[in-house]
Amino acid sequence: MQVQLTTNERQQLLAVLREMDPAALAAPTEKRHKPRRKVAQKLWLRRIAQDEQFPIQQATLVNTSQTGVGLLCPQRLPQGERFVIPLRFVEGGGWLVLCEVRNCRRLSESHFKVGAKFIDKIEDHSGTARPPGDWTV
After folding, report:
1. Angle, vertex CA 118, rays to CA 116 and CA 61, nearest 5
2. Which residue has the higher pLDDT, 92 or 112?
3. No. of H helices and E strands in the chain?
């Protein structure tokens, strides 16, 4: 007799099994240098260029690691372009982070998957920090 587990039950079971033997259920090896954590959070980003002003645009943070982020964006972001995002933490506070696009691919007519690495950050305790002038160079 087979029993169908709900998504929540399956996740709980896998969590218990991983605690018992982390190597037995290790995720398949990836090409990434650091493991990614899945997230689903709306945020804004501002593209940065030395002589241009870009409007703020909305994006969805879909994963993060110690060195970068994955985003869903409504517009293509060229490789090498820099942008700023605010990261807020559950514990409180946050960072204003300068990122650089490493890759961008079309997922649909209206969405692009962007992979970016962290270049620099400043503390942003209250969510009101502004990018330093040297980030536009």
Report:
1. 55
2. 112
3. 1, 7
